[in-house]
Structures are given as C-alpha cells and as structure tokens.
Model the fold of this input.
Amino acid sequence: MSDAQTSLSFRSNAGKAVRNQKLRAAMKHAADTFGAKRIDAFAPVADVEAMRDRASAIREEVLKNLPRYVDQFVASATRAGATVHRAKDATVAKEIIRKILADRGARRIVKGKSMVSEEVDLNAHLEAAGMEVVETDLGEYIIQLEGEAPSHIIVPAIHKDRRQVGKLFSERLGVPYSDDPQVLTRTARKVLREKFLSADAGVSGANFAAADTGSLVLFTNEGNGRMVTTVPPLHVAILSIEKMIPSLADFPDFIRLLPRSATGQTITSYVSVITGPRKPGDATGAKELHIVLLDNGRTEILGGESRDILKCIRCGACMNVCPVYRTVGGHAYGWTYPGPMGLILTTLLTGMAKSHPVVDASTLCGACVDVCPVRVPLVDIILQLRRRKVREGFSDPKEKAGMALFGKVAASPALFALGQRLAGRFWPVVRVLGGKDVAGRMPAPAKTPFRRKAP
Amino acid sequence: MRAQLFGTCLVDSFFPEVGEATVKLLRRFGVTVTFPKGQTCCGQPAYNVGYQAEARSVAGHFLSVFRGEDPIVTPSGSCAAMVKHHYPALFRDDPKMRAAAEQAAGRVFELSQFLVQVLRAHEKGFPGKGKVTYHSSCHLTRALGVLEEPLILLQSLRGAEFVPLPDAALCCGFGGMFMAKLPEISCALAEEKADSIVATGADTVTGCDAGCLMNISDAMKKRGSPVRVAHLASLLAEGI
Done:
C-alpha cells in the first residue's frame, strides 16, 4: 500500500481519513448513490426475500461440499479444454501465473478487475519478472496510475472525484486537463485499446465457477473484461475456491441479485460465460485458457466457526451501507478487502496478529446484514472475531483490566453502587482520565442515581 | 398488571429522569412497577467487545435479579435486544442458565414495544407540542425488530408535529464501546446525524436508547444547537 497504511494501524488510518474532508465527501456521495440505486433496483422485484433465501441455500450447499464441487469443476473445465491449476497460497498462485506467461514468452499483459489478484499481489510479481501489466477496468486503471490499491471491491477508485482523475490523467498521460467523465473515459479507452490489441495475454478474475460445466462467469460493465478474456491468445483466470456454484442452472437468482446489490443495475452490461478455450468454429475466445484456483487459507476458514463468510459473493453492498466504511473509506482497513466483509476476510486470511485492530471497525449496527444478498451473518461473525481477539491475547492490556473490573463490579450491586458514587464524586478526574474523546462526550453522572428514587 | 423495570446502567447513573418518566408512564396505564433490587447492567460493554466471561458474569447476575414471571420492561432497545438474543447464546452450553436466559428473553420488552403492544397506550394519545423528529436506533430496529411502535406513539402526540429524519437508518456512531475505541469515527457519525436532525427543522429529537441520545446530544451541544434531545419516555411522560 503506497501510504503504508496497514490493518494494524487502523485507528490512526481512520483518524487521518476522518480529517480528510475531500475523501469524506467522495465516500458519502458514492455510498449514498450506490445505496439508493440498490434500493431502486430491488423495488420492482417481487420475491426478493425468497430469492435471497434460495441464493443463501445454494451458497450453503457449496460450502457443505466444497471439495467435491472443486473436484467436479476441475474435471469439467479440463474436459472443456482448460488447464486448471490449484494453488495453496498466494506465493504458489503468483508463481504458477508467472510461469504460464513466461513459458509462452508473454511480456505484455492486460488485466481485468480481480480482487483475488489483488489479494495475492500479482501485479508486483509479474512486473518484477519484467512484464508490463496494465489494468483495464477504468477504476483499476486510475488507481494503477496513481500507485494505489483499490478502496472498494466493486468500485476501486470510489475515493477519487473526477477532478482528481482529471489531474492524474493530465500529469501521467500528457493530455490536456479535463474533469468531464466522458473525455476522461475516452482518454483511457484510447490508451487501453492499443494495449488490448498488442497484448500477449489477458489475466482476469471470475465472479462464479459452475462445477457442472466447468464454466467461468464474469459480470462486467465496460467491455474490458470481454476484451481481456477473448482478444489475446492466452487467458489466465485466477479465482478463489469458494466461487463455486453447483450448476449453471443455479445462476438466475445470482444474475438478479449480484448486479442489483453491487451497483444497483438490473443487470451488468456484459455477462460472460467462458467454457474452455476457443474451439474450431468459435468466432472469439482465447486459444489457451488456464484457470488458477486459489485456496490461500479458505479450507482452514471452512473448518472454523466463521466459515459463513465464504458464502460472500463480493457484491460490496455491505460496505456501501456501513457507517464506518462510508466515513473512512477502504484504504484505512489496510488490506485488500474493506468494509464488513473485508474486515472479516482480512482477519481470517492474514491472521489476528496482523489485523486485530480492524475487528473494532464496526458499530454492530447491522446495516450490512440487512443488505447482504446471501444472508451472511456479518455481525455475528464480527462478534466471533472480537471474542477470538480477546481469547488469543490481542486486546489492549488496559481494556482487558478494565473489562475484568467491569465483570466484577457489574455483577455485584454493592460494588456497582460504590462505583457510581466514586464516579460521581470524582467525575472531573474521570473526565480527564477518560479523555475528551470519551468521558468528555458524556454528561456528569446524576447526583442521585435512579436506583435511589426507583419504586 | 405488574412489570419489572430494568433501568439500565446508563439511565441509572446518568439519566435518572428517564427512569422516573418510565415509571410515571407505566403507572399511568395501570402497571404496578417493581424495580428488582441489585440490578446493574446487561453486560453489553463486555459482550460487544468480545469479553465473553465478563459478559456471562454480568448476565448471570441479571438473571439472578430478574426472577419470576412479570414482564421485564426497559427504556433501551439495545439492552432489550441483549437479553432477548444474546443471553440464550451466552449460556448455550449451560442447560440450567440457558433455561433462565430463555425465560428472561421471553418476557423482556423495550418500553415503546410494551406501551403499544401490551398497554395500547397510543389509543388514548399523549399531549405534546412542537416539532419532533426521531432517531431509530440500530439495535432497536434491526436486532429487536421494533420499527413501528415509537412512530405510533409519536403520532399519538396531540399538538405536536412529527417530522421524519432523513437517513434514519444510518447509525449515530455510538455503538457502545465503539465510541471509546474509535472516537474519531464515532464523532464524525454523530455530526452527520446532527446535520440530518438540524435539517428537519425540528425543535426536539427523540429516541429509545440513552446511549445514542447521549452521543447525539454531544454533537448537538458542540455546534451550539438549541434542539432538545429527549428520550421518548421523557417526551411522553411530560404531558401526563
């Protein structure tokens, strides 16, 4: 991350973000827009709750039998002519992809948007091997030019306004300044068109993988996804193992849920189903297709209490409605995935030692649970992680001591009443000790607590 | 009818007037109110941050204090949700305590819920005045499912005008210990809430959770706003 924000420095990242008025305004605007569009998109749909139930049940079925579905997918995709690779972690996945590309002499790589490739930090690995890697999703292209990481899983440059993009383009691409989105898009399109046509290989992610047919399904809007996967002779797709869906027949509910939840669209501009490489007689398609299935800790998550997070279909709706995310933006979380689903994945995938401050990044308001299309119990999982944090000894020692005291005092009426009297008597001291941020925001305790006047 | 009042630690220590208003309201509708001696807190400060053992110790104390069959009424959506949903989970592996937790969960009511569902207090209505807006707190609405009851009561205020709050579903940033752990975010959210409140032109903002109201009140005070922040219990009780 360019500004060295890590999950461990979440609190100071958040403090900086809160003071960044430009960021706050951009985040509020974007979150409100996507939140409202989502509501509008679902309004005419009659059976949303039943649809969510069905989608959730399908995801549950996948998790219950994940190894079986992965094996089935590998067999089906292989039958369809793809080469499937299994990567146990990020290092292995990156090296598999580098080797596929290097063995074929690929130097110029175009990329479709893929959060899993961000998770393994693929670009840096390929660039270190001398390859040119160009992000072709407009948002990804913008942040690649800026040297930033995505701050949203669907809208990677959500934290930037068009004036910032205009300035960036004029500085980096040598074009006259404009903050007209149409002009900016045309500029990017012109640059990227040349990249597509000269690319040796395309690297993409996938939204789903159908176990029965071995197909990859991609929801995209800009056409770049289709270019990346069909124009260059070689297509490498990287996806995590839990993206399985039993059958292509299961897609209708997801086609209706994912775009509505993500961007408030009834459907994305493109829905691509890729089954194997180009076959004789096909008009388009890569000649060679490699699929890299990444585990990177998911099998371990699957065996643990927080496994329901693997139902997530990466729509981003939870972050759009999250009061914390919309206040601090995605970079403050310090890793690939932000917002409610992100703080959970960050903790589970990078480990409590590297991430424990982000488990605090929730007011437990539950807005995320309201919108999750596959009913991931996000608040329950955040509470599980907070308990783990305490159990594994990552909580603040002062807090721990305070909580031990609270546990004793609040379980004893005499101590509780004493505590009330002391707090009332020494409030000015408590106020100073508690700081202006905490005690300073509370009124002084009542002279006579309610218990002494109660019936 | 009898009811056991759970005052909550915040009301008990900081907002006794809300407790008194709650008693006045319940009595007005013929309820004999008892205040089980020795009550303290529901345990959320520990539970929400992951301190399971401490939360269990406080919850166990609560269950030892609130015995019998009478409904438990509390002027807090958050504390009611804690008893209703998290107590049974806390004692999942302890059959005896779990039975007690489920028994308490089955008879706990948030105040507005009790006033409307059980006492039908809205039917007679309340005297009121001014322009009132309402903050729907997150645990009240999402965890407890109490959406309509406070609105029904507010609409029964004769002489008062109710104005809905924009972005009503957005958290105020209190979040219990969240306010202490991430104060910058907490304050930013409270400011955003204060903006919405001021935009309504209301002279009073009300709600059903003292924690949220405390956070909102601080943000209003910081901007020198004359808007009054009052718990729904206080607002309803002052006219009777």
Observations:
- The mean pLDDT of chain B is 97.
- The two ends of chain B are 20 Å apart (CA to CA).
